[in-house]
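User: Here's a protein and a ligand (adenosine monophosphate). What would the complex look like?
Assistant: Let me lay out the input and then the predicted complex.
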Amino acid sequence: MNILFIGAPGSGKGTQARLLSEKYDFVQLSTGDLLRKAIASNSDVGLQAKKFMDQGMLVPDDVMISLVQSWILTQKNKSIIFDGFPRTVAQAQALSSVLLNQSLKMDFVIYFKVDQSDLVTRLTGRRTCKSCGEIYHIEFKKPKVDGVCDLCSGVLVQRTDDREDVITERLHQFEKNTEPTIQYYRNLGALYELDSSSAAEIVFDSIIKKLNLGKIG
Ligand code: AMP
């Protein structure tokens, strides 16, 4: 089963994708994480992507499509949660062809809806583990020890693009490019709209119900 989580930055896609892949048999494709790793390893893709990411802009479609295409080929038919890709209509169309070529399909597209006014608070307060990528929040999801990841004891940092000036551009890119992508899936009759303003556990329960997955734990 392949699932797409689509929504604005800060709408909770990453948190839910991590939860789902920890508890069920999914691999998470977070294109943001993939790009941050590429930057950390100084690869060509990382160098190309950094200048866009630092400004809150989208990395060009051709770079993203080839990155995702190669990644999918390494997954050998595992169930995938797409988190952060596609973000443009061109990416969505390319993904459909890539999946079709592999005799795969997108089974569910879930749109994470949150009030615009909540997004800035969610993003500016977000802290991320430098080692494992676990996501925290200075008010809503505090770690047990300040600044330290509960899971791996890594250091919690604020992403450089979670600062207010960059967030404005990221939200603008969402409206300009990703809202039309959401409409693309809506037109295909494939969109499930989820209110993701509730607590993470409640949102998670709605997702597993929608996906018809048995409750674990
Ligand atoms: P994220 O971690 O999903 O918030 O992504 C962080 C940044 O990575 C975005 O602001 C973009 O600059 C870049 N990025 C991630 N996914 C994509 C994508 N599908 N298309 C273009 N840029 C992307």
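Summary: Residues 28 and 81 are 5 Å apart (CA to CA).
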